[in-house]
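Example 416, ligand flavin-adenine dinucleotide.
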Amino acid sequence: MEINLWINGKEFKDDVLPDTVLIDFIRSKGFYSVKRGCETSNCGLCTVLMDGKPILSCSTLALRGNGHDITTIEGIEEEALEFGGFMADQGAEQCGFCSPGFIMTVIAMKNELTNPSEEEIKNYLNGNLCRCTGYMGQLRAIKKYLEKGSK
Amino acid sequence: MFTIDNYVMAENLEEAYSLNQNRRNVILGGTMWLRLGRKKIGKAIDLSSLGLNNIEEDDEKFTIGCMCTLRNIETNKSLNKYFNGIIAKSVNNIVGVQLRNGATIGGTLFSRFGFSDVLTALLSLDTYVNLYKGGIVPLSDFVNMPLDNDILINVIIKKDSRRASYLTHRKSSSDLPVLACAVSNYDGEWNVVLGARPMKAKLINIKKNYNLTKDDVVEEMLEIIKQNIGFGSNYRGSGKYRQILAEVLVRRNIDEIISGGNHGN
Ligand SMILES: Cc1cc2nc3c(=O)[nH]c(=O)nc-3n(C[C@H](O)[C@H](O)[C@H](O)COP(=O)(O)OP(=O)(O)OC[C@H]3O[C@@H](n4cnc5c(N)ncnc54)[C@H](O)[C@@H]3O)c2cc1C
Ligand code: FES
Ligand code: FES
């Protein structure tokens, strides 16, 4: 079936099978930052933004992206790099496997919430699992990153 | 992972309904749950272009289109001004914001999952589902109806000044609940709902004078619940454990309603 969508501002028109999931479509266009984790909607690793909202690309049909704007880390490289610096400073990354999805959700949160409380931050990131860190370094990194943004 | 032979963007509900009568065809909600299954779908029927993704409000009710996401419901300020915000509370622990941006209220209620937080919370309110063929049915009846090939068009929640409270117990914050409990009080009537028993949520309606003291209410209700609601076992917890949890969650919910307390989970 025909699909027409924008990934990081670039238009893609293609034919897809009706059961193609968004992650496969995006990766087939060369956006390899989007990673496959659990594939059961649990881990958040496959997070991309659709019209600015974080969604799970492993469980969303590519056809549902028709006519929409998709953003991956490649499309917000500067912000991702900046936040990555805060993660490094706080020792918030160990294996780094969870980082692509985590960073996408942090950026979405920054755009959606104004001055989120610790509780709101934790709640927004509930769907991003990290098997290494215990989340405290990440929480510190987010707070410092948001503090800097509000100065 | 499911497979899909054909994808149909429905142009109207009649088309969607008649396609859905074939056992190989399915209505697509947010596909979060369908994705976990292995169904070989003939025609996937998409309702996205039918304008069913809005929350409408008038003096008497909220009408929530079936394609509204759980996140739409969580962040809708008007809706959550009512019933002590239990609608937002009930979706808050469902995995994460990303899943809630996908999962729909239609897919959630039509499926009548045993573990459902949303079903538990909405059963404590004056809630109805509007079915394409079945018409408007109280959620308390719909919960016990067999799964069929109808389409849930929207969910209607009547506005009233009911006080409500919702709590769950979970092993970790984004896991399915071990037990979910909603209690509401309105005009001398108490609705106590226990969900994730792990069977489907069950509602008990108790007509009791509003002026009773808290202890009276709690003890009587716990006795009624013991007589009327059964609990089962699965790997999240035993029936006995759930029975004990039920007493705690019911007590806390009633406490919150009567004394304006604020129990976290
Ligand atoms: C990993 C995971 C964890 C979850 N954890 C929780 C939890 O902790 N608590 C909780 O309450 N819920 C939980 N859920 C369930 C979730 O909240 C949704 O209820 C579920 O995903 C179904 O919604 P959907 O829009 O994805 O439906 P879909 O997967 O698209 O559809 C589900 C079923 O409903 C049918 N359907 C969809 N829309 C309609 C309609 N309008 N009319 C008729 N039939 C329809 C479909 O044909 C299908 O059979 C979880 C789901 C997942 C995937
Ligand atoms: S890969 Fe999508 S949620 Fe885990
Ligand atoms: S750093 Fe290893 S999973 Fe998060």
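Summary: The two ends of chain A are 48 Å apart (CA to CA).
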